[in-house]
Amino acid sequence: MKKIQIMLIEDNREFREVLEFSLADEPDMEVTNQYSSAEFALRVLHDQPDINIPDLILLDLQLTGMSGIEAIPRLKKAMPKAQIIILSQSDNEGDVLKAITEGASGYLLKSSTVTQVIEAIRTVMDGGSSLDPRVANYLLKQLRTNLKKTEVQSLVTNREMEILGLLAEGFVKKEISDKLDISYRTVDTHVRHIYEKLNVNNGPAAVNAAHKLGLFK
User: Which residue among 65, 82, 140, 181 is the one 20 to 30 A from 72 at the CA level?
Assistant: First the structure.
């Protein structure tokens, strides 16, 4: 079984060690790189092009030097296929929106349990998104409310809005297929169309973009 290879970027050494120790118990996960700053991680990636590229990055926001928000687009450019989950103390709505707009696939608070972090990693690697309910609740409330409306602006179809809502709640494509009783291929096509219409690369960013465009008002 191929393990999910994980990079940690966290300036708190004790927290970093706790994460590494906890993830080591998971048979399908492996921490392959860990850095105390985004600059250090990016420098290593630049200087060592043959370094093992991770599948997923756990990234703090309040880093010494370059912030996590600033680091997201740089990390995505250096490692386009790597997914990013923010693990932060900040529950500020602005931080959440900036992070997912820049390309993060998940946002968790550091008060999350180890089980929640592990579940988030698996969800994101399975094509879903993972938003801590304490920081994403206001987005989901607007989304759920507007799914009850009979008319949705023409930018996104009713079915696409329905799928967008399920993605925002953390459902992966296979689960959406089962829930809506449509084929996986159909779900995948809808998701691709949503991303294209909203000019985004992941579920959380799609929710944020739709909100900004006024689709939920």
Answer: 140
Q: Find all residues with CB under 8 Å of 85, minimum gap 6, and list them.
A: 56, 57, 58, 59, 104, 105, 106, 107, 108, 120, 121, 124, 130
Specify the pTM: 0.68
Closest CA to 59 of 112, 129, 11: 11
Sign of CA dihedral 159, 164, 165, 170: positive
DSSP state of 215: T
140 CA to centre of own chain: 15
Look at residue 139 in the predicted model and tell me its pLDDT. Answer: 52
Whether the Cβ atoms of residue 99 and residue 107 lie closer than 8 Å to each other: yes
- The structural domains of the chain, with segments of one domain joined by +, span 4-125, 136-212
**8 Å CB contact between 171 and 190:** no
| Residues in CB range of 193: below 8 A, 6 or more apart | 160
Q: What is the DSSP letter of 33?
A: E
d(CA 198, CA 205): 9
User: What superfamily in CATH does domain 4-125 come from?
Assistant: Response regulator (3.40.50.2300)
Report residues of the chain scoring pLDDT below 50. 142-144, 147-152, 154
